[in-house]
Structure formats: structure tokens, C-alpha cells
Amino acid sequence: MQPLRGTKDILPYEIIYWQQIYNKASDILALHNYSEIRTPIIESTNLFERTIGEATDIINKEMYSFTDQSNRKITLRPEATASIARAFISNKLYQSKLQKLWYLGPMFRYERPQSGRQRQFHQLGIECIGSLSPMADTEVIHLASKILGQLGLKNYILEINSIGSLKEREMYKVDLIKYLSQYQQDLDEDSRNRLHCNPLRILDSKNIKTQEILHYAPNLNKYLNKTSAEHFHLVCKYLDNLNIPYTINYKLVRGLDYYNHTTFEIKTNSEDSQNTICGGGRYDNLIEQLGGPKTPAVGWAIGIERLLKVIKEELELTLPQKQINVYIATQGLAAQTKIWEIVRNLEKEKIKFELDLSNTSFQKQIKRASKLGAKFCIILGDQEINNNCITTRKLNEHKQYTTPYSTFLEEINKFKH
Ligand code: ATP
Ligand code: MG
Question: Which residues bind L-histidine (predicted)?
Fold first, then answer.
């Protein structure tokens, strides 16, 4: 039996990295008073169709959708922003002025699996809901950079842009289509298909010929009005004050329809084509579009699998020790009846142990204790029961000694070290 294509088991030796990411992110986010939120993995298909945008890859070809027994159209969430906007409305979270939320969980997209691209993958994300201020954009970008830095990501590039308001983009689109139409024959196939339904995405094209054509295309930046330009200027200025380096990329548009004004991405400078780790931006109309009160918002999502690929080694150095202090070997019914008092005492003292369950010879049990790297093996068999004592073996010194049972319990603390 194999897992489904594009999905992966996260095994115990890897889960420690995930826990580390969760813990570090949650500590940093708690400092900024962000609260964790968990929304359902399944939502109405309609939620994503209404928000992400008809001409996007996600809606066109990547959704995991099905009809349930009551004929409802349901989708495994491809991303969490739409779900959080839905939760914001369903739970009337708008009753408080500002919501600072974060999440970590699985997302699902039917894509061609490759390194850094899975069908079930995980995102850590934040959403700052309720503020129009450029301070909000800067705070969320700062948090992404802080979290990535603390997790040991070294060489990364923050790219930022403003895609203005819907009105500004509509004006730009007209001119962009006009310009690109002259070169229609020379565009790559994807871009040709997007020319009328989603022309902004052409700016994203990796095709060299298309990139050359784009070189002299009109610049979206020139279409921003004073308010939009000022917003972007302030976001950049605050980033300067925080000493966060960034590059302005006027072609950075992002794949989802609900963004406006600020968009940004964080990339590693590896050659890997899946080198975008974090993507985000402002989405001031999404909540209203879903039937909620007009509420501006800004957020981002980090792909955990892509992040882990680059920070695993750094993270390794900070992982907590997980050595087993005590291995418990027993033999015979009397010993196996009595051992539970010791188990309870080890628990009370928070001493890490492994209880052998194999019922094999002591020799075999001690061998396993050494293999697991335990410091001590305590041995309780018929002989110890008859003498009301317990045997302790120091595994690295190959020495063993017996202690009266009551003294053993009194001194159980010494196994801590
Ligand atoms: P891409 O252009 O690589 O497909 P995207 O624009 O679709 O990315 P977003 O929707 O912005 O990605 O998601 C934010 C982050 O989630 C990405 O930067 C990436 O790190 C991660 N991500 C997205 N899709 C996948 C996937 N299929 N497998 C693993 N990680 C993913
Ligand atoms: Mg994608």
C-alpha cells in the first residue's frame, strides 16, 4: 500500500521539526497578540469559486471537489484565507474592530507532484483583519521575516509590489492587452490563453520570449493614483525603518484574484523552481464580497514543506534533547504487577522512560535499552521480588548494582541526570 500521489506521511523523526516550527511561530505571533484559529478542512465549493477567481489555476484545475450524500458541492480547502474570511462572517468576529489571526494546517491542490509541490501540503499563515493602515502591511511582512529568520532561514529575498485598486487595474489591463496583442503570436501558449481572461498573470510568466516582450510593456506602477502610491510608499518606508531589505518587483501580481494594493513574496535564492516560500498581500474587498461588512485585511501564507527543505539543517541544531533516561526491564508476573508503582513515580518526577513490553530475556531487553541510547536500565525479576530490591544497570559503564526497593523509590530523582 502506498499513500496517494502527492501526499506524504510525516513520520516521528520528522514531526519534531514541525513541532519546532509550530512552537517558534506561535511564540513570535503571541508577542504581537495574534491568536490561533482552526477552520474546517472542508467548505462549500462555492466559497472558493466566489473568492479565488475563475481564471486562476486553483479554480480551473486544482480543486479537490466532490458531492456529499446530500448532493452538496464540497471542496477540500486549497488555501485558508477564504475560509478565515468565511469564519470571520459566520462568527461575527467583526464585532471587535481588529482581528489578528494565525493558522497552520493542510491544504489540497490537484497539481503535478514534484519537489516542493504536493497535493496535500501545509501552510502557516496569518491574517490581520480590520485595518487599512500601511502599518498593518508592514507588521505582517515583519512577522514573516521574523519567523523565517528565527527558524534559521538565511538567504532570502523579499519582493514587494503594489497592484493598486480594482479600478486602477482595470485601466491597466486595457493597455496591457492592447500592448500584448501586438505580439500575440510570439507569446507562450499559457500567456496567449490568459491574454483576455487573466492578463495580469502573464507578468508572472517564466517564458523567456514572453519576458522579453514584457520588457517594454506598460508598467502597473504608473497607473496607481495618489492614495495607492502613498500607501505603497509608506509600507516601504516602514520596512526601511525596520531594516528589512526588499526588492520592488513591478511585475509581482500573485495568483489569486482577491488581492489589491500590497503584494509580496519571499523567495530563497536557490536555483530550485519551487523557491517561493511565502506569498501574501492585502485583500480589502474579500469579506464584503462574501456578504460581510466592508473590512480591509492583509496576510500571508508560508509553505511548510518548502521551508523545511531549506531550514532542516539549521533547525537540527536547536532541537531539544530527547534521550531516554530509564529503560524498564521486567520478567514474571510478580514483577510485572509491581512495576506500575515505579512507572507512576517516574511520571511524577518527569523522568523519560521506555517500558519494555517484549517479555523476552533480560539480556535481550538490556540490549534494546543500549540500542535506544538509554542511560540506565532498571531490572525487576523474580530474584529482585524475592529480595525486595531492584537492580540498576548503568548502560555506558556496564556496571550494575542492587538497591532495597524503598531506597530506590526515595532516590528515584537521581535518574533525572
Ligand atoms: P506556486 O506559484 O508555487 O504554485 P502559489 O502562488 O500557488 O505558488 P500560494 O497560493 O501563494 O502559492 O501559497 C503560498 C505558499 O504555499 C507558496 O509560496 C508555497 O510555499 C506554498 N505552496 C503552494 N502550493 C503548494 C504545493 N502544491 N505544494 C507545496 N507548497 C505549496
Ligand atoms: Mg500554485
Answer: 79-81, 109, 123, 127, 254, 258-259
The secondary structure element, H or E, covering residue 147 is helix 134-150
As a whole number, mean pLDDT of residues 265-278 equals 89
More confident residue, 316 or 244: 244
In terms of domains, do 52 and 190 share one? no
Q: Are residues 142 and 228 in the same domain?
A: yes
Contacts of 119 (CB under 8 A, 6+ apart): 4, 5, 6, 7, 64, 108, 109, 110, 111, 113
Number of structural domains the chain divides into:
3
- Rounded average pLDDT over 245-261: 90
What is the domain extent for residue 177? Answer: 169-218
Instruction: Supply the CATH number for residue 409's domain.
Output: 3.40.50.800
Q: Distance from the CA of 78 to the center of ligand 1, in angstroms?
A: 10
Q: Domain check: are 388 and 299 in the same one?
A: no
For a ligand 1 pocket test, name from 5, 121, 283 the mutation site with the most ligand atoms within 8 angstroms of its C-beta: 121
Say which ligand is closest to the CA of 279: 1
Is the CB of 267 within 6 Å of ligand 1?
Answer: no
- The answer on 112 and 51 residing in a single domain is yes
User: Quick check: is 321 in a domain?
Assistant: no
The protein residue with its alpha carbon nearest to ligand 1, atom 29, reads 117
Is 306 close to ligand 1, i.e. is its CB under 6 Å away? Answer: yes
Between β-strands 42-44 and 73-76, what pairing exists: parallel, antiparallel or unpaired?
Answer: antiparallel
Beta carbon of 118 within 6 Å of any ligand 1 atom: yes
* Statement to judge: residues 192 and 233 lie in one domain: no
Give yes or no: residues 201 and 235 share one domain. no
- List C-alpha distances in Å: 124 to 62, 103, 105, 409: 20, 6, 7, 45
Q: Within this chain, do residues 393 and 272 fall inside the same structural domain, yes or no?
A: no
Mean pLDDT for the chain? Answer: 95
| Nearest ligand by distance to the CA of 112 | 1
Does residue 7 register a pLDDT over 90? yes
Which residues carry a binding-site annotation for L-histidine? 79-81, 109, 123, 127, 254, 258-259
Q: Do residues 204 and 251 lie in contact, with contact meaning Cβ atoms separated by under 8 Å?
A: yes
Residues 82-101: tens digit of each pLDDT: 999 999 999 999 999 899 99
Express each pLDDT in 30-76 by its tens digit: 999 999 999 999 999 999 999 998 888 899 899 999 999 999 999 99
**Would you call 166 exposed, middle or buried from its count of C-beta atoms within 10 A (0-12, 13-18, 19+)?**
exposed
1 assigned to some structural domain = no
Same domain? 374 vs 401: yes
402 DSSP 8-state letter: E
Residue range 160-204, pLDDT digits in tens? 999 999 999 999 999 999 999 999 999 999 999 999 988 998 998
